[in-house]
Amino acid sequence: MAPYLGLSTVMFVFLIVLGVAIGFENASASPLPVAPSSAGDFEAIELSALELFFHNGLVSLREMGGFLTIGVGTVYVLSINGLTVGAVLGEATMAFGPVMTVALIAPHGVFEIPAVLLATGLGFRWTHVIWAVGSGKRRRYSVLRHVLDTIGWLAIVAALLAIAAFVEAELTVPLAGMLA
User: Fold this and answer.
1) Structure pTM?
2) 3-state secondary structure 93-155
3) How far apart are the C-alpha atoms of 90 and 35, rounded to whole Å?
4) For the chain, which residues score pLDDT lower than 50?
5) 22-47: string of b/e by CB count within 10 Å (b at 16+)?
6) Contact criterion met (CB below 8 Å) for 129 and 91
7) Distance, CA of 129 to CA of 104 (rounded, Å)
8) CA 167: distance to chain centroid?
9) Residue 140 CB contacts under 8 Å (≥ 6 apart), including other chains
10) Distance between alpha carbon 173 and the CA centroid of its chain, in Å?
C-alpha cells in the first residue's frame, strides 16, 4: 500500500499548493463564496456528524472506485479535493488569518486527510491490480486476498472519517467561536 499512498500524498500536496495559489490570487481579486471576505462575515454551516460522514464517505468511495475508469476517476476526485482544499486554505487565510484557518481545519483534517489519501491509494492500488491481472502479468494473483485486504483498509478509512465528522460537527464551530 505504501507506494500508492505515497503517490496519493505527493499528488494531493501538489494540488493543494496549486489551489492555495489560486485561492490567494482569487481572494485578492474577487473572493468566491468558499470563504467570507472577513472574519466578521463568518457564518458556520452546521452539518451533523452523520451528514459529514456520509458526504466524505461517498467522496472516498468515488476515489477508490476510480479504478473502474483505469484510475482516471481516482485522479479526477483527488484533483477536485486537492484544488478545493488549497483554494479554501488560501482564501480563508486571507479572510481569517493563518491561526484561525489552522484552527478551523486542523482538528478534523488530521483524521479526514489521511482517510482521503488511503481511499485514493486504494483506488490506485486496484487500478494497478486490474491492469496487471488484465494484461496477464499476474497469473497467480489472489483477488480474494486483495479484496479482504481492501476491506481492512476501508474499515480504517471509515473509522477516520467518523472521527473527523464528529470533530468537525461538534468541536470546530465552538473552537471558531472561542477564537473569533
Assistant:
1) 0.84
2) HHHHCHHHHHHHHHHHHHHHHHHHHHHHHHHHHHHHHHHHHHCCCCCCCCHHHHHHHHHHHHH
3) 9
4) 32, 35-39
5) bbbebbeeebeeebeeeeeebeeeee
6) no
7) 38
8) 15
9) none
10) 20
Are residues 53 and 162 in contact, defined by beta-carbon separation less than 8 angstroms?
Answer: yes
The candidate with the shortest Cα–Cα distance to 94, out of 18, 168, 26, 14, is 26
Distance of alpha carbon 28 from the chain centroid:
25
Three-state secondary structure of 125-139: HHHHHHHHHHCCCCC
- Cell numbers at 111, concatenated: 483524521
96 CB contacts (<8 Å, ≥6 apart)? 35, 39, 42, 104
Cell 500536496 sits on residue = 13
- Chain-centroid distance of CA 6 in Å reads 15
How confident is the model over 74-125, as pLDDT tens digits? 999 999 999 999 988 888 888 888 888 888 888 999 999 999 999 999 999 9
CA atoms of 117 and 8, how far apart (whole Å)? 6
List Cβ neighbours of 30 (8 Å cut-off, separation of 6 or more).
none
Enter the C-alpha cell of residue 162: 467518523
- Contact (CB, 8 A) for 119 and 168: no
